[in-house]
Amino acid sequence: MILLGxxxxxxxxxxxxxxxxxxxxxxxxxxxxxxxxYRRLLTWARRWPQRTWVVENANGxxxxxxxxxxxxxxxxxxxxxxxxxxxRRLTRGGGRKNDRIDAAAAATAYVHGDGREVxxxxxxTALALLDERRVNxxxxxxxxxxxxxxxxxxxxxxxxxxxxxxxQAAALLRTVxxxxxxxxxxxxxxxxxxxxxxxxxxxxxxxxxxxEELVGSSGSTLTNTPGVGPVLAARLVGRVGRxxxxxxxAAFANYTGAAPIEIASADKARHRLSRSGDRQLNSVLHTIAxxxxxxxxxxxxxxxxxxLSEGKTPREAKRCxxxxxxxxxxxxxxxxxxRSKHQPSQAT
Length: 348
Known about the structure:
Blueprint: E1 2-8, E2 12-18, E3 25-32, H1 35-45, E4 51-56, H2 63-71, E5 76-79, H3 81-92, H4 99-111, E6 116-117, H5 123-153, H6 166-173, H7 181-218, H8 230-240, H9 249-256, E7 261-265, E8 268-272, H10 279-293, H11 299-309, H12 314-342
Parallel strand pairs: 1-4, 4-5
Antiparallel strand pairs: 1-2, 2-3, 5-6, 7-8
Helix pairs in contact: 3-4, 5-7, 5-8, 6-7, 7-8, 9-12, 10-12, 11-12
């Protein structure tokens, strides 16, 4: 078995072959970051039939190479830059550093247990990409609607209603009879903006449909939770990835910022809202909580009312519900993950 440590950079990658038993380097190759050079690297590595690639920062600069190798059946592991830095300081001293040494340090870090297997991209990555695209489309729509409102304020007395659809804006524009070049230009710009909004609405609808399809094919049961539709389920799956990377529900709640922070001094103790964690996931939990509070027959509504009866303020009761929802989401995703391992044919 040979370990092929890789030190990736934006334009070049350096690979160093290391014998894990003797920790001796048996070869090194530096390539340009191109597909032709990737193939040359793989050809060079085939001299060692039993090999494992150890890529430093396989979720960063080394992501493309790592996924390219995984797609071709190679065994690939990821080690964090902090681990290779520690190995380099211990074995070479703080003064020596080059790409070949860094690549070897990555392989040595893997021997010491700092690496983790790189998995092939699947539905999780696809949903993360769709979620990012949806955020960008939604932001573009907000900007376009704001521009339309600004134009309509100068075309209509009092402007347009705050909640304005593309069809409503088009209907308003049909009532405008421009007088002069300035008003004609404003009406023309408003029509262009309405066209853009309609195009964005169509893309958002297509995005949601694609999310629903992928969430269904992934085997996720998150949509069985009241308040969780395909879009929110896609964001949860895309941003969380493997739920099993969190050892406990408490660890997951802390990651999402749903776990309150204790503030204690002497005999006084209180809890405040956490401002850390993944704010996008925190926003999803907040949305689910709000929806369930408004659904009389939902578990969240009953829990929220119970907390109010215990003397909690509405804000405190909502925080408690978000914490409870974080536990629920983690358990559902863990169950989905275990089920998919027993039924790999349902995974995408």
